[in-house]
Design a protein that fits this description.
The chain has 401 residues and is an alpha+beta fold. It contains eleven helices and twelve strands.
Length: 401
């Protein structure tokens, strides 16, 4: 699921790689309550968790970790979520390093997984390991059935406004191009986008709500005849040329880290994280989805816990700036082309990306309807669904399609 809807605290999906909740969940659960569940735990984990964490660190890490006692072992809760728990494990200061062992590591513990969710988690772990080896993500120090040990990266997530900074936008484009150029051991057919949307649609058509505030908004959304509209979108994108590449599929500010100490460098140092939705997909979706995220601010502490500003969608000049840096990284011969040929490639991407931005609005709109039915997170999912479908039709009108 989206990783940004706990009011500034990330949460991982109930099933990774775009897989869905079980069908039964829609049938047996009442409407999501407006109150948020207790997602934030105390800073100290319970004793059984601390003991297991201690053993994992001793078994998978080297150097001073082999000699630290359980009493001296340091662990704090970073995040409590519905699926994953994150902990910061650290060596105390009085344990000097023996070699190049990390002094801090991130412990990620998975929640309860269905068989389908467990299969998806295996794929996500394989992906994480490959990206770590290629230095495109945090290092992987250990993996076990209950979770994994990752590199703790001193950093902060980008703020929404920073996406518009030319230098940051350029590096995001370059990072995305590198991501798109990878060869990964996953299904190369671009089934993810509409395969997932069709599953969401099937769930949406079976949903019923009990609260009047949700019923009225849901009825409005159903009046759009979403299944028929999705077929129109599918036909439009079938006639739109877009390469199939390995995509992040959720490149928004909350999934982009600015590494500590890099703020004053001439070139920002960014790292993409959270690969739950990564798959082979159309390039236009990945970039178009990123552009759509310029419009949505999730750092809000009042209902519906997001703000939308359509004027923030990248201008043509901002898009061309992004494409310039993307193509320079993705196509090493791009800079040797004539200015005329470079312009043609960038102009073609404008059509490609903005059409696939429609799919981003539709995808997350359907997703949000499902979340409004099942999620216990304190977020205005139905309002978000309305906002995404309104943006879909506004962009569709603007594009004249």
């Amino acid at each position: 699921m989206k990783t940004k809807f706990i009011n500034g605290v990330s949460s991982s999906p109930s099933m990774s790689l775009g897989l869905l909740v079980t069908d039964n969940a829609l049938e047996v659960q009442a409407d999501a309550e407006p109150e948020c569940k207790d997602l934030h735990r105390s800073d100290e984990p319970d004793q059984p968790t601390k003991h297991k964490a201690f053993l994992w660190c001793r078994e998978f890490l080297h150097g001073a970790w082999k000699t630290v006692t359980e009493d001296d072992f340091q662990i704090n809760v970073i995040r409590g979520g519905l699926s994953n728990m994150l902990f910061l494990c650290a060596l105390p200061e009085n344990y000097p390093a023996v070699g190049d062992e990390p002094r801090n590591v991130l412990l990620r513990l998975y929640g309860t997984l269905t068989s389908t969710g467990a299969e998806a988690m295996v794929l996500e772990s394989v992906m994480f390991a490959i990206l770590a080896e290629r230095e495109l993500g945090p290092k992987l120090y250990g993996i076990f059935p209950q979770g994994r040990l990752e590199e703790f990266v001193p950093s902060r997530k980008l703020d929404l406004e920073e996406l518009q900074i030319p230098g940051i936008s350029a590096e995001i484009a370059e990072k995305m191009a590198i991501f798109h150029g990878m060869r990964m051991p996953f299904n190369k057919e671009p089934k993810w986008l509409f395969g997932t949307m069709e599953k969401y649609m099937n769930q949406v058509l079976r949903i019923t709500f009990l609260r009047e505030s949700l019923i009225s908004k849901f009825t409005r959304l159903l009046s759009y005849n979403l299944p028929q509209e999705m077929e129109r979108l599918k036909n439009l994108l079938a006639s739109t040329c877009s390469p199939v590449v390995f995509c992040h599929n959720d490149c928004q500010e909350g999934n982009i880290l600015l590494l500590s100490g890099s703020e004053t460098t001439e070139k920002q140092r960014l790292m993409l994280i959270d690969f739950e939705y990564s798959s082979y997909n159309y390039r236009g979706f990945d970039i178009g989805n990123h552009f759509c995220e310029w419009m949505y601010d999730y750092n809000c502490d009042k209902p519906p816990f997001f703000k939308v500003n359509p004027k923030n969608y990248p201008t043509k000049a901002q898009q061309l700036h992004f494409y310039e840096h993307y193509l320079s990284e993705y196509n090493k011969g791009f800079e040797n082309l004539s200015k005329e040929d470079q312009t043609k490639l960038k102009e073609a991407m404008i059509k490609e990306v903005n059409r696939f931005a429609l799919a981003s609005h539709f995808f997350w709109g359907l997703w949000a309807i499902v979340q409004a039915r099942i999620s216990t997170i304190n977020f205005g999912y139905m309002e978000y669904a309305v906002a995404r479908f309104e943006a879909y039709y506004e962009l569709k009108t603007k594009l004249g399609v």
